[in-house]
């Protein structure tokens, strides 16, 4: 009879995400991951060769989830629906959102990742960038072409991240007023970019 593994790679990746989101990247170690998962440390090392590898796998999972739920909405002319999708994702998946925020201020991977892991990270980033580029190309028909990329970066990323980050990092719910603030900001910036003067 085949004995099923009690702890899977998924358990350890989930644990790494939880530890990082709760305590920061510096707190993520193989022993912290094992403790969070309730597993022997040898089980972690059996599946992952390093802290960097498990963090890279966690990063890939969270970024892919963000791309599917949020960045996939970065198409067409409806930039507000993309902002609303980001707010919804942050509210539904605050642990993922906190984990993704860690990439803004820190290098999360150790040196020495395997070439296939580095390629997977590059591919995921390229897919995310492609979502942004598709949105920019659509909006270049209706807005000042020079303003499109910085406008989109502000509307889709910088503005929303700036307003949700304090709530996420303090483990507080994102209040409804945030939607109204971002909507007013969004509409003002879109109006400015679409000006004809």
Describe what this molecule looks like in 3D.
The structure is a single chain. By secondary structure, the protein is mainly α. It has a domain at 59-193. It has nine helices and no strands. Helix 1 (9-23) packs across helix 4 (51-69) and helix 7 packs across helix 8. It starts with 8 loop residues before the first helix and ends with a helix. The mean pLDDT is 88.
Q: Give me the secondary-structure category.
A: mainly alpha
User: Assembly state here?
Assistant: single chain
- Write down the overall geometry: elongated
> What is the number of beta strands?
0
In terms of per-residue confidence, which ranges show pLDDT below 50 for 5 or more consecutive residues? none
Helix run count = 9
The rounded Rg comes to 19 Å
Helical fraction: over 70%
C-alpha termini separation: 76 Å
Largest sheet: none
Task: Give the SSE string.
Answer: HHHHHHHHH
Average pLDDT for all residues: 88
Strand residue percentage: under 5%
Strand and helix layout:
Layout (H helix, E strand, L loop, with lengths): L8 H15 L6 H8 L3 H7 L3 H19 L9 H14 L1 H12 L9 H25 L5 H25 L7 H17 L4
Helix pairs in contact: 1-2, 1-4, 1-6, 2-3, 4-7, 5-6, 5-8, 5-9, 6-8, 7-8, 8-9
Q: Brief overview, please?
A:
The chain is mostly helical. It has helices at residues 9-23, 30-37, 41-47, 51-69, 79-92, 94-105, 115-139, 145-169, 177-193.
Sum up the structure in keywords:
197 residues, mainly alpha, 9 helices, 72% helix, 0% strand
């Amino acid at each position: 009879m085949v004995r099923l593994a009690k702890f899977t790679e998924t358990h350890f990746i989930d644990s790494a995400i939880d530890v990082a989101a709760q305590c920061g990247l510096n707190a993520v170690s193989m022993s912290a991951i094992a403790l969070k998962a309730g597993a022997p440390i040898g089980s972690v090392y059996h599946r992952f060769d390093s802290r960097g590898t498990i963090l890279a796998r966690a990063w890939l999972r969270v970024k892919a989830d963000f791309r599917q739920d949020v960045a996939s909405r970065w198409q067409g002319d409806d930039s507000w629906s993309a902002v609303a999708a980001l707010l919804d994702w942050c509210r539904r998946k605050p642990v993922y959102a906190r984990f993704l925020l860690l990439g803004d201020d820190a290098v999360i991977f150790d040196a020495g990742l395997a070439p296939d892991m580095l390629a997977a990270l590059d591919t995921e980033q390229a897919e995310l960038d492609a979502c942004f580029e598709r949105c920019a190309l659509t909006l270049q028909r209706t807005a000042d072409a020079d303003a499109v990329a910085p406008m989109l970066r502000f509307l889709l990323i910088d503005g929303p991240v700036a307003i949700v980050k304090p709530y996420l990092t303090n483990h507080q719910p994102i209040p409804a007023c945030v939607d109204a603030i971002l909507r007013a900001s969004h509409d003002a910036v879109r109006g400015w970019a679409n000006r004809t003067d």
